[in-house]
Amino acid sequence: MFTSKSRLLLSIIAIIILLHPLSSFAFESDSVLFTNQKYYSISVGYWNDNLLFDKEINNLLNKNILQTDDDFITTSFWLRISKQEKLSHWFLDSYLNIATNRQLNFRMDFLSLLLTYETHSEYGLFRLGGGFISTGNFSGSQIQNFYHRIYSIEKLTLPYSEETYFGLSAHSSIKPIIYHLRNFQLNGITSFSLFTGGGPSSIELGVEGNYTAIEDKLLFNLRLGYRNYLNSNKIFESFFGKEIVWGIFSTIRISSGIQSSFWITGNQYGNGSQNHFGISFSFLTQKLLPIIFEDVSYP
């Protein structure tokens, strides 16, 4: 008998086999997602479940618009090395996710490394990647409380979970083109991730819209979907659940070789009403390379 994880893995493999021929239909395009050049670039990013001056903004509006307490996936750091050649990309991503749970009184850091291949065709976009994820004490407590000291926020003292975890990961994302008109494109989304040893594996269905406001200068990305994390290890249920997820991303070219992205996401890890606010910078870019939901939602 196949387990649920085995069935999920077999489904991913079947989809990969079926969609592999799509790469042979790749075509030249003036879209910012395509280029004939080969180059390397580097990106650094950061997102947090609090917006700076959140309490002040709530007081000004006299409403609790923004979350003011760190919890769940509290802070994340991201480093990427990219290689782009013609209609494909290679991404080497490293993530540090700092997770806290005040109710259950423990914390956990996630450290992960992921290698991803991305290809474009006249039918849409396809991603396939793999790597590893490890949990434990990776200085997340010191990083968080350093930030708290700077902004005169009370120190958060939570013990690290005694349970640590190491596992391999694989993920796949398929985005067929549903509608295209001039500078706007609408894609469907089917996304899978699989982790050995208990989670957090996930599946997502949704739609994504891309609008190029200024060619190779400014691009907007909108995401709406439903994500379900499949946690066979109960410790991950504290941080990953199932919810409607959404995201608003903007990517702008600052100068030759430098671009920046800004975003806000909702329920990014399926844990309810939590929002995340993020920023990234990319260097040595020859063409505008947008940051999207898959880039910042790992694991």
Describe the 3D structure.
It is built from four helices and twelve strands; from the N terminus they run αβαββββαβββββββα. It is mainly β and 299 residues long. The longest helix is centred in the N-terminal third of the chain and has 16 residues, at 4-19.
Return residue spans where pLDDT drops below 50 for at least 5 consecutive residues: 1-35
Assess the beta-strand content as a share of residues.
Answer: over 45%
What is the average of the pLDDT values? 84
Sketch the topology as an H/E string, one letter per element: HEHEEEEHEEEEEEEH
Oligomer: single chain
How would you sum up the major sheet? 12 strands, antiparallel, barrel
The helical percent reads 10-25%
Helix/strand class: mainly beta
